[in-house]
Structure formats: C-alpha cells, structure tokens
Amino acid sequence: YLQIIRQGDWFHFRTSADGQRWEDMPGSPLARGDMRGLPLQVGLYHASYGSESSSIAFEQFQISF
C-alpha cells in the first residue's frame, strides 16, 4: 500500500504491507513550497529509467479522500 498525505506545503509518503501498520518512506515528509495554492492532482504514473522499455499493470487500485 502507498499512502500520500498533503498538509499545506508538506507531503507525507508512507508504505504498508498490510494496510494497517504504516512506515514513513525515506525523505518523508517533504516540503513543496512551489505547490502552494495549487490543486492536488492524483493519478497513476510509471517510468522506466535507462534505455530499457517496460510496462506495468495496476490491480485493485483505490483512491480515498
């Protein structure tokens, strides 16, 4: 599981293997003053690094507000 919480200019990134116990990811929380006043946009994104191409499939995806 991945959890992202926005509080003003601060973003908290957390992961969980079971959806119950959450651990902060390295570098969390992160301040993003450049996003002050901008709406939050949520979506899926996949990137491959280097010259190799890749693909990914998402299953059981849910966005909670």
- What is the straight-line distance between the termini? 15 Å
Individual helix count: 0
Which blocks of ≥5 consecutive residues have pLDDT under 50?
none
Element order: H for helix, E for strand: EEEE
Q: Tell me the Rg in angstroms.
A: 14 Å
Percent helix, as a range, is: under 10%
Mean pLDDT: 88
For the biggest sheet, the summary is: 4 strands, antiparallel
Shape: globular
**What structural category arises from helix and sheet content?**
mainly beta
How many individual β-strands?
4
% residues in beta strands = 15-25%
Short structural summary:
The chain is mainly beta and 65 residues long. The chain has strands at residues 2-7, 10-15, 23-24, 30-31. Strand 2 (10-15) and strand 3 (23-24) form a beta hairpin.
List keywords for this structure.
65 residues, mainly beta, 4-stranded antiparallel β-sheet, 4 strands
